[in-house]
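Need the bound structure for adenosine-5'-triphosphate, inputs here:
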Amino acid sequence: MAELLAFDNVSAGYGNSVVLEQISFRMQEGDSLAVLGRNGVGKTSLLITLMGLTRRHAGSILWRGRDISRMPTHQRAQSGLGWVPQERFIFPSLSVEEHLTAVARPGEWTVDKVYRLFPRLQERRGNMGNQLSGGEQQMLAIARALMVNPSLLLLDEPMEGLAPVIVQELTRAIRSLVEDRGLSVIVVEQHARLALSLTRRAMVLDRGRIVHESDSASLLADDDALRRLVAVA
Ligand SMILES: Nc1ncnc2c1ncn2[C@@H]1O[C@H](COP(=O)(O)OP(=O)(O)OP(=O)(O)O)[C@@H](O)[C@H]1O
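Answer from helper R.:
Posting the output first, comments after.
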């Protein structure tokens, strides 16, 4: 399989402060990676460093073998990085369908296809962003990222603050993206067990460094390691 992404000794942060230190990892096409860790250890910073929104102090980021370390954020998105930020950024005065058509790029994903993945969005197609529940906004944020036809989907705490029934719906959709369609994903999640059940590989951060890497299934089966690394009960 072709190499999709490589972080090579990346240190990055905000202004002079460094919050990610010497991060190195690789992803192949079709890989799925859970990024776990306690609050404030740098999980979101990892995703936004990939999107070019932190200050890089050292190291390089290779995307399909090309160094994108200096590439502006919009070009990273155009080259196949589909970012679903924690804040969701849904526009109050655009309808569901307008959110989707506004960003559409040619490729596998169409409005009809994302409606099949999220039937709830089809029911709400004419509703404005501010008329959606938190769960529907999250579905729309993922659907909008898919409309750009990304090669790698970056999900930042997609289940945060959502009711169990919505978490189930989102889990089903993300699982189908990963398992049936072979889409490459990085999932940052506080729900460690859920993220591990959705992915093939896992990485745990602590104070900006990688402190654990393994396949997701073996970490999921190791209660002691989960407690020690991510404080999961
Ligand atoms: N815009 C910013 N400016 C300065 N420091 C920041 C900024 N955003 C995050 N930080 C700091 O960077 C560190 C890592 O934060 P980050 O949000 O990446 O962690 P996280 O693991 O995603 O946490 P959480 O689970 O709480 O979202 C924290 O110490 C945080 O205070």
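Comments: Residues 14, 19, 37, 39-45 surround adenosine-5'-triphosphate (CB under 6 Å). Residues 91 and 129 are 5 Å apart (CA to CA).
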